[in-house]
Write a structure and sequence with these properties.
The protein is mainly alpha-helical and about 80 residues long. It has a domain at about 30-75. The chain has three helices and two strands. Strands 1-2 form a two-stranded antiparallel ribbon. A hairpin with a 2-residue loop joins β1 (about 5) and β2. The radius of gyration is 24 Å and the shape is elongated.
Length: about 80
């Protein structure tokens, strides 16, 4: 028989401190996926700037800023 406090079920209290390992693994996998995509996009942008020297000027970015941005660690946005 379910128990109630002020008319609401307290079944959520029975779970305790259980951790959903599937949820934790999914979150870690999603984070790693974002980091890898970010790193590849930065390298792709550097290659693009290397092939077309006018592209960085069109965006208002000089080569030094583009290299500094691409050299940042993959975990920084």
């Amino acid at each position: 028989m379910p128990r109630y406090i002020d008319g609401e079920s307290v079944a959520f209290l029975a779970g305790g401190n259980s951790v959903s390992w599937r949820g934790v693994f999914k979150k870690v996998a999603d984070t790693v996926r974002v980091w890898r995509k970010r790193q590849s996009e930065r390298q792709e942008l550097l290659k693009f700037f290397a092939t077309d020297h006018r592209a960085s000027n069109d965006l208002g970015i000089d080569q030094a800023n583009a290299h500094a941005w691409a050299d940042r660690p993959f975990w920084r946005a």
